[in-house]
Amino acid sequence: MWLRASCELQFEITVPTPLILMLRPRSGAQQWIAREEYAFSPRLHVEEFSDLYGNLCQRLVAPVGAFSIRTQVEVLTADYVDRCPGAEFIEIQNLPQGVLNFLLPSRYCESEQFNHMALEITAGQKLGYDQVACIENWLRNNILYQPGSGDLPVSAVGVNARQVGVCRDLAHLGIALCRALSIPARLVVGYLEGLEPMDMHAWFEAYVGGRWYTFDATPTASPGAYIAIGYGRDAADVAVCNQFGPPASPLKQVVKVEQFFPKDA
Amino acid sequence: MWLRASCELQFEITVPTPLILMLRPRSGAQQWIAREEYAFSPRLHVEEFSDLYGNLCQRLVAPVGAFSIRTQVEVLTADYVDRCPGAEFIEIQNLPQGVLNFLLPSRYCESEQFNHMALEITAGQKLGYDQVACIENWLRNNILYQPGSGDLPVSAVGVNARQVGVCRDLAHLGIALCRALSIPARLVVGYLEGLEPMDMHAWFEAYVGGRWYTFDATPTASPGAYIAIGYGRDAADVAVCNQFGPPASPLKQVVKVEQFFPKDA
Amino acid sequence: MWLRASCELQFEITVPTPLILMLRPRSGAQQWIAREEYAFSPRLHVEEFSDLYGNLCQRLVAPVGAFSIRTQVEVLTADYVDRCPGAEFIEIQNLPQGVLNFLLPSRYCESEQFNHMALEITAGQKLGYDQVACIENWLRNNILYQPGSGDLPVSAVGVNARQVGVCRDLAHLGIALCRALSIPARLVVGYLEGLEPMDMHAWFEAYVGGRWYTFDATPTASPGAYIAIGYGRDAADVAVCNQFGPPASPLKQVVKVEQFFPKDA
Amino acid sequence: MWLRASCELQFEITVPTPLILMLRPRSGAQQWIAREEYAFSPRLHVEEFSDLYGNLCQRLVAPVGAFSIRTQVEVLTADYVDRCPGAEFIEIQNLPQGVLNFLLPSRYCESEQFNHMALEITAGQKLGYDQVACIENWLRNNILYQPGSGDLPVSAVGVNARQVGVCRDLAHLGIALCRALSIPARLVVGYLEGLEPMDMHAWFEAYVGGRWYTFDATPTASPGAYIAIGYGRDAADVAVCNQFGPPASPLKQVVKVEQFFPKDA
To answer: Minimal Cα distance from A242: which residue of C?
Structure first.
């Protein structure tokens, strides 16, 4: 399906502020970036680079005063996120090297704390995809989803204690539970059509059956309509906007996502 | 300056043909990709990846029949390509590791054959930028520039023998001469406004004074107005379109580049 | 100085157990690997790969029964770890891309929690090296060093609460404090001659003045005599031995480090 | 089998000479580096880094006077190089990204010139491994093997014209023929037990059936006994010793390889 998504960030900057943005999605497994715009006001020098995970990042110093960022993409995405019940668990020794990294505990996914709980939740499941689907289902039934983006991220241990969380929190707990089962898992940040209220979204992917599959424990999870912007171990790696120095505020963030039909279709 | 550039490729495919394209420029030192479109007709599955040099490449299998590719970019480029007479030669032991690769001979730049000639051309020059500028100048005066894109690339040895070449050929000879002086040099393929007749363009960069500088020995060289699409050791690494299997023909390639003034400027 | 270091790990394996080891140091800024041995008993198939940080890792499946690993290196290290009081803070916008990653919070270094504390500790210091030296000193005076390697790592927040920790814990808190000041910092695991009791050691590096510098808040810190084995964001990234599946025990770990004088010296 | 191999290089240096060496083999698919030594005389500062292909390289500036390099390895290698007649050709669209690079023409492998010849040689063969085996066989029967290491490398076109070549030349022609068939191929430099006269050896690998396989068209080809040191597109990428500046001579190179039986075996 065709999706048009945009993100606008507005700052009132009081001291020159270094920012690292991650707002340029790349074409990937289930999405093709057909059109894209990316603008800053005022214009300024921006450096673009690929991070450890292949995300395109933009580094700049926001000047004092009103500063805004606007991106828009038109993306052809898969109508349905791939699902594959029964896809097999891949033994550590057979995982591709680039995936091993996603087995390690990370800032918001203290996976080493969840061994017992992960086994309990997935008891009786076939190893692999079905375990992850079972975790996704458990999250949906046991952690109260709270729309919005929260303030500072809460780690998986915290989410599990509170039993409530925003999309990112649910994903973090899901990731920690997967890794506790030796299933590589990573956070994805991006757009999701139909989200209410509309905002950036976060979900997770697990590596089973030889590839990454999408999982999303939020009630707004859709059969398709996802646009991935960034991948990483958790929210520490995948911030749409990383600020350094004194916090820049007020910050306004407007996200829009809509389906559309190209004229030539 | 603001440039709008487009490239359209049309094929008549007779058997399913794997293609690897390099048609998505990245933001870089002197360019910001503000807007971009990329479309295939008919639509098909495309995989995007970064090659060894960080270029974004697209891999697909062109289906039988009429097949076309269309890309368009709007880019804010530096008004003037940076120049820096006097910038110093960097000793091998002080070069960044990522640059060492561009000292080696490559398919179309047999640099190991040009030691004597490179020293002769640059005799009396300060080591570094001035040597490269001298090589650029020598090329302009000694190799007859022939517009167009030629057929198969000719290597530096061949260009030197013929004393005539297209933009890519001049760049290859320039690169070989630089490497012969232990100056890292690489080929750049992209757009240049004002080229006559309009086509894809190729030029080269040399690493002196701690960074890459642009050089272009063609008479159409402009003080600015360049959009880089791909970087590599030579044309073998940087093909806008790499075909595999039986040649797909006829091929029509339409390139346009124009300056424009954004409404909000 | 010349150091000979060895590490022997003995396991009693009850079910085939995937291991990822990090026991092959690489030559680097202040060390040259002159001689190395690496053996498994029984012999088995081992795959070696480089992780995200360039560490050489070994992946294998330990077979049931007695299983041991033995490595030994002879390394020429700098007599004195480089120090550079006054080395400058590098602004975010000027940091090399490969270093940005070490600004982010990580599993055991919740740097986003330490902004206030880091500023307080380093009040009045010149930005850069002197801030890090001040943090190192503060750790030495305020966190009780406890020899040994502890069980599960404790995160910086935990270490700060307990006011006591093993070498790795001190390093984690030091890293979190540096990152809170926008100074890239990373964990190093390796050997240190003279450690009492002898064991693997952990310390940290901070990126100031355009390069990485060594810091070590433990009382056993030596003017030199370090051999680095692995680098990463924190102990989650740099485990000498990562086990998957049911814990393999008992585990015996014997580490030796001694200075020696090569015959031809 | 267990192999002990050593390489000694002796120079008489007249001006300080930057060198880039590739003399530290890594553990890989069919070899485990169990023991290694690496020394310079006189001792000096050496920087080690990984190149584009993952080879460990050493960069240094050789000082004026007698200068020598000595490396020795003890390696457990596979008794037999893997062979797999019938292994299938992998379509371009299904090749791993990291392998695509080895389809391109390179300095000494002008693969774009060999389409017709490659098809002719392999006529009637099953696509994939059998084509490569057929090329290997053709080389053995049609290009006269000349022991020794030659002077400057000759490119595939040159080797084909002369119908005679050293090991590296045969490999270059084999690689060019493979790539002309859209089979990824790369040069390997390393040790081979039993070579007469003993020297460094070069052979090639082709990617079929989902992995790299070893091929060697020289009459000295052995069923096993290979130790790979470096991989690359061709000899331009894989030089055991790359010198910059005026040639350092005389150069003495002593290579030894022998089978041995470890005491504990």
So the answer is: C104
CATH of the domain at A49: 2.60.40.2250
Contact A48 B26 (CB under 8 A): yes
E runs forming strands in chain D: 2-13, 17-24, 31-41, 47-50, 56-62, 65-77, 144-145, 164-165, 185-192, 201-208, 211-215, 226-232, 241-243, 252-259
Comparing CB atoms, the residue among A91, A93, A104 nearest residue C236 is: A104
Using 70 as the pLDDT threshold, list the residues of chain B that sit under it: 150, 247-250, 264-265
Whether residues C124 and C214 share a domain: the answer is: yes
pLDDT averaged over 10-residue windows placed end to end, chain C, 265 residues: 96 93 92 96 93 95 95 94 96 94 97 96 98 98 87 91 96 98 98 92 97 93 88 95 76 92 74
User: Which residue has 């890519």 as its token pair?
Assistant: B168
**Are both D68 and D109 inside the same structural domain?**
no
Is position C169 within any domain?
A: yes
Residues B47 and B168 in one domain: no
Is residue A17 domain-shared with residue A41, that is, in the same domain? yes
Pick the closest to residue B218 from B136, B111, B134, B152 (CA basis): B136
Which candidate, D76, D72, D201, places its Cα nearest to that of D145?
A: D201
Nearest CB partner across the interface for C54, out of D26, D41, D50: D50
Of A27, A37, A46, which is closest to B46 when you measure between CB atoms?
A: A27
Structure-block tokens of residue A111: 């996976």
Minimal-distance CA residue of chain D relative to B113: D152
Min distance A224 CA to chain B CA atoms (Å): 17
Cβ <8 Å between D28 and C43: no
**One domain, residues D55 and D152:** no
* pLDDT score of B205: 98
Q: Of the candidates C136, C210, C219, C223, which has an alpha carbon nearest to the alpha carbon of residue C175?
A: C136
Q: Measured between CB atoms, which of C100, C236, C244 is closest to A105?
A: C236
D54 → chain C, closest CA residue? C50
Q: Does residue A130 share a domain with residue A68? A: no
- List Cβ<8 Å contacts ≥24 apart for D94-97: D95/D184, D95/D207, D97/B49, D97/B51
Given B20, B105, B237, which is nearest D236 (Cβ)?
B105
What domain range is C51 assigned to? Answer: 2-78+241-259
Contact: C107, A103; criterion CB under 8 Å: no
In a domain, B54, yes or no: yes
Domain count, chain B: 2
The CATH number given to whatever domain includes residue B153 is 3.10.620.30
Q: Using CA coordinates, name the residue in chain B closest to D56.
A: B97
Terminal CA-CA length for chain C: 11
Find which of C20, C35, C52 to mutate to test the D interface (most D CBs within 10 Å of its CB). Answer: C35
Whether residues D187 and D97 fall in one domain: yes
The span from the CA of B165 to the CA of B133, in Å, is 19
Q: What percent of chain C has pLDDT over 90?
A: 86
CA of B170 vs chain D CAs: smallest distance (Å): 18
In angstroms, what separates the C-alpha of A188 from chain C's closest C-alpha? 17
Instruction: Please indicate whether, in this complex, the C-beta atoms of A244 and C100 are within 8 angstroms of each other.
Output: no
Residues C72 and C198 in one domain: no
Tokens of A141: 């039934």
Domain annotation covers residue D264: no
- Least Cα distance to D170 among D126, D228, D108 occurs for D108
Do the domain assignments include residue B53? yes
